[in-house]
Amino acid sequence: MDKLLSYNQFLFEKTKPISSDYSLVTEGGAYGHLTHPFEDLGLTMQDLQDMIDVTVEGAFGPENFVQEKTDGQQLSISWKGGMLIAARNKSHIKNAGENAMTAKDLAAKFEGKGDIEVAYNAAMRDLQASIGALSEDNKLKIFDEGRKFASIEVITPVTQNTVPYGQDMLVFHSIVEYDEEGNVIGEDKQAGYEIAKMIEDANSAAQEMFYVRGPKNIDIVPFKDAKKKAKYYGDKLKAIMKDAGINTTSTVSDFVMGSALNKVDELAKGFKVELSKEAREGIARRLGGIDKSYNARQMKKDLGDVAQMFTDLEKKDGKIIKKKIYAPLENLFLEVGTEMMKNMSSFLSANPTEASEYMRKEIESTISTLRKTGGEEEIKKLEHELSRIAAIGGMENIVPTEGITFVFKDKVYKYTGIFAPIHQIRSMLAYKR
User: Fold this and answer.
1) Distances (CA, A) of 154 to 4, 95, 120, 183
2) Is 59's pLDDT higher than 80?
3) Are the C-beta atoms of residues 94 and 80 closer than 8 Å to each other?
4) Contact between 322 and 288 (Cβ < 8 Å)
5) What is the pLDDT of residue 161?
6) Are residues 216 and 346 in contact, defined by beta-carbon separation less than 8 angstroms?
7) 3-class SS at 208?
8) What span, in angstroms and rounded, lies between the C-alpha atoms of 348 and 400?
9) Which of 247, 254, 264, 312 has a C-alpha 20 to 30 A away from that of 282?
10) Angle at CA 254, nearest 5°, toward 409 and 321?
11) Any idea where the domains of the chain sit in the sequence?
12) What stretch of H or E contains 53?
């Protein structure tokens, strides 16, 4: 089967809208989307500065649970009634997995979907065998008869996404505990290591297709020229705050509003119009994706015929404008993430050097194809993603990993670096196919 077709099917499983005009490829399944620092509207600029400093200084400790983020297919599993069960959404998790999927159910869900079907069926078979080898006491302790689910990444060349790992792995991450309504009430980030060790001790890690293992340990080291790098990133953040008219106590939400106001002023100047305070702020909230309470009728009342110019622009280029509003802060954290990953000395990928070269050649080929076949909107998106790549140092910074996850202020975040734009470009071609 065509690998691009399989990837396309995978994307449809994992893409979830987070607003009416914007979507992200999520981690998928029951586990949900992990947040970039620049997406958390409640973080302050001081929080972001502290996060950057910890990253640059290599000061992450055991409490930060730094792990390699994997680029496979997510699956949440538990053990109940003597068998393996799986969850792809909240309804499967409610009431201790009462309506969770059996291996047969999951096979039916992905029947006819080619390589994805093969991968999930093999994963369920191998997980049934590996977890089944554990003692009943350990299974009860880990899964509590469906009240706790393990988040697992299914990785195989058969369903390769952006990162070529070159091996078949089932990677345990955390164990998540849920209440009867399917709401998260606790997460054990250490559990991925522990359950993998139990399976290894039971001599059941090597299964028919997959090797079952825990998350990849990351050696955390300071950046090269850490003091210089810290000043460089700190100065960038200060410039971003200055441009948005905010300070260290301001939140990411305040940044979005300030950046959006700058964009509205730029547009108003181009349209040669004067905007009232209400119109200026209302349009900024719309373009920044904050809210659309300033509706078209009110805009028409305030601006007359000029309102049509703004609504037409939003309809045509609203997604790109929103991306540009976020871009200064986003590019800063993609740059920080890229630099951190360049410092990593080991990866889950079997051959990191070959994998990096493969990714570079594939994305260059994809870019060439999109330039030849893409429509106006696709070319605009492509150019935006290429500008992100340029802002964080170019294609030479490609490394064979999706990124890292870490805990900061009791929340899980991710750095994805250059993976983010190249993944978006690759997704564009997958959808075309």
Assistant:
1) 18, 26, 8, 24
2) yes
3) no
4) yes
5) 78
6) yes
7) coil
8) 8
9) 247
10) 115
11) 3-67+220-231+324-432, 73-213, 252-317
12) helix 45-57
Query: How do residues 240-256 score in pLDDT, each as one tens digit?
Result: 999 999 999 999 999 99
Beta bridge partners of 84: 79
**How large is the average pLDDT for residues 320-349?**
87
CB pairs under 8 A, 24+ apart, for 259-264?
259/288, 259/325, 259/326, 259/328, 259/329, 260/284, 260/285, 260/287, 260/288, 260/290, 260/325, 263/287, 263/321, 263/324, 263/325
End-to-end CA distance of the chain: 13
Which run of H or of E encompasses 76? strand 73-80
Taken in order 343, 56, 405, 14, is the CA torsion positive or negative? negative
- Number of residues that make up the chain: 433
Residue 265 burial (CB count, 10 A): 13
Cα separation, 282 vs 299, in Å, equals: 8
CB neighbour list of residue 271: distance below 8 Å, 6 or more residues apart:
306, 309, 310
pLDDT given at position 325? 96
CATH class of 73-213: alpha beta
Encode pLDDT of 120-152 as tens digits. 999 999 999 999 999 999 999 999 999 999 999
Burial of residue 198 (CB within 10 Å: 0-12, 13-18, 19+) is buried
Q: C-alpha distances in angstroms, 344 versus 297, 359, 398?
A: 53, 17, 12
Which token pair is 208? 């028919």
Over the stretch 22-40, which tens digit does the pLDDT of each residue have? 332 234 444 456 799 999 9
* Residue type (1 letter), 39: E
